[in-house]
Amino acid sequence: MEKHKESIGENCQNGILNAKTSGTPRPNVPDLRFPEFTREWKKSIIGELTTKVGSGVTPRGGESVYKSEGHPFVRSQNVGLGHLILDDIAYIDENTHQRQKNTELQLDDVLLNITGASIGRSALVNQQIVGGNVNQHVCIIRANKKLIPSFLCNFLLSQYGQKQIESFQAGGNRQGLNFEQIKSIKIGLPSVEEQKKIADLLLLIERRITTQNKIIEDLKKLKSAIYQELYSNLPGEEKSLSELAEITKGQQVNGNQLSKNGKYYVMNGGIMPSGYYDDYNTEAGTISISEGGNSCGYVQYNSSKFWSGGHCYTLHIKPTARISALFLFHFLKWKEADIMTLRIGSGLPNIQKKDLSKVSIIVPTLDKQQRIMTLLSTFQMKIEHEDMYAINLNKQKQYLLSQMFI
User: 20 to 30 A Cα–Cα from 118, which one of 36, 187, 239, 322?
Assistant: First the structure.
């Protein structure tokens, strides 16, 4: 596995890809390319390289006409960054499909989101959605023989494609691309052979990213199953959270108080660095729970000391409590969904300290706690390692997107 993980990077370093020589003028070629290709790229626009640029419509009746089977109906949430997201794909019946026959999807059509927050996301049509349709928020771009579809898809995701898409939004109140703007997007065009080689390399990385995400997803499912097996019938004494830990609330600081010493963190789907502070109010080995906002109820173990923000509860284990902080963290992580049910208020919810104090904890023997901690901590380290590798794969893809197009 480790050898496979290093192979893509080694290919770049060993000359399979050649970087442009610094100081040597080579106009209209990318900074990084395969060594067998030397000709300059042609300048073109998408409208000259396509046979179709157009979107669909949402059927009358909206979601009420969606079916559990039939023709796939692609919406903007189904178009990711170079891949399709088909977990919640909708379907339409044959009659509805026939009324939108001009938007029927063909294999390797390029899909581009043209409105909303996901504008600019692009993916290729695969066998799962061939014969389907799109709504008005997704544009179909059908390439001619001079343009490899996967090359176009990756170009649109590169900084060169994204900057042009962003430029069309400048000064506008509503995010949206029209078909003439899409046709006018400038693209550097190498030979079909070079297009294919670039696209094939990026496809390999995208497939590896997909595999890596599946590995992480399966590990998290396994972790949930282990939690359930360990905790659902755990022998021990039942205690309330307030009997085991002091629950304190953090203190917000103003931006002008931030400096380059110490770390200031807030809860945001996890504890995220938000600047620097001279002091700290939370020791290592404590547990934090988000008090309010979108991450309300999220549980985090604090491996180092830091400054806790005003929307964060911190749990300090009481000296008389026969419980490990790491064991308590894993137990609370297992009960995280239950903790989130304590939310009150509309808009940005919050959790009251009096409600959090009543959360029930099962406390087994210290020996049992140690065995559980060892197992779960090892498993968590494995997930973190795979997460980091997924991040590095995505960084590698973004680097190639920035270097292999013009």
Answer: 187
